[in-house]
């Protein structure tokens, strides 16, 4: 495995790993395709009639089931700050960093207050990459991902 390529392309600035992300792998799309199939097959629209807008709910399932697979955080960088939906990505990219942990302000308030960064332990990931190296960290991510697929 080319660990430098993983660092350059598939480890987000904030410390998540694209290859194990449900948006990048298409798992989210698969889940919603199955939910849509179940919704239609079992007539769930009739069961929800009068409780919620079942047609709007089904439309939401359709949109999510057809959603594109994420191209990866670093592939989505926009050069103009107003065009990039991720302030963390824009900040690190504009400073020329591959990871937020390269910044002297790490971990900044933007990272510490971002719900996704907190939920997925991204700051801890960045600290581990800094301490153990990208190769060891990526190997660990793959081991944990494979274990999660076996359960």
Query: What is the straight-line distance between the termini?
Result: 25 Å
Proportion of residues in β-strands: under 5%
User: What's the total count of β strands?
Assistant: 0
User: Can you tell me the overall shape?
Assistant: elongated
Mean pLDDT, all residues: 91
The helix-and-strand class reads mainly alpha
What's the Cα radius of gyration? Answer: 19 Å
Helix content: 55-70%
Quaternary status: single chain
Low-pLDDT segments: none
List the total number of helices.
10
What composes the largest sheet?
Answer: none
User: What's the structural domain tally?
Assistant: 2
Order of helices and strands: HHHHHHHHHH
Overview of the structural elements:
The protein is elongated and about 55 Å long. The protein folds into 2 domains: 3-21 and 75-150, no CATH class; 27-68, no CATH class. It has 10 helices and no strands. With 151 residues, the protein is mostly helical. It has helices at residues 3-10, 22-25, 27-41, 44-48, 54-65, 87-94, 109-112, 115-119, 122-132, 134-150.
How would you sum up this structure in a few lines?
This protein is mostly helical.
Features:
2 domains; 151 residues; mainly alpha
Describe the SSE topology.
Blueprint (H helix, E strand, L loop, with lengths): L2 H8 L11 H4 L1 H15 L2 H5 L5 H12 L21 H8 L14 H4 L2 H5 L2 H11 L1 H17 L1
């Amino acid at each position: 495995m080319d660990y430098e390529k993983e660092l350059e392309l598939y480890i987000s600035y904030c410390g998540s790993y694209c290859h194990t992300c449900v948006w990048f792998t298409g798992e989210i799309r698969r889940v919603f395709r199955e939910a849509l199939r179940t919704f239609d097959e079992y007539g769930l629209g009739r069961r929800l009639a009068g409780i919620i807008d079942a047609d709007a709910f089904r439309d939401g399932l359709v949109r999510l089931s057809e959603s594109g697979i994420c191209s990866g955080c670093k592939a989505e960088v926009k050069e103009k700050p107003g065009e990039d939906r991720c302030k963390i990505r824009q900040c690190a990219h504009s400073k020329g960093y591959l990871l937020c942990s390269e910044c002297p302000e790490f971990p900044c308030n933007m990272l510490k207050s971002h719900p996704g960064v907190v939920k997925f332990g991204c700051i801890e990931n960045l600290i581990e990459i800094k301490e153990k190296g990208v190769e060891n960290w990526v190997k660990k991510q793959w081991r944990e991902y494979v274990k999660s697929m076996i359960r």
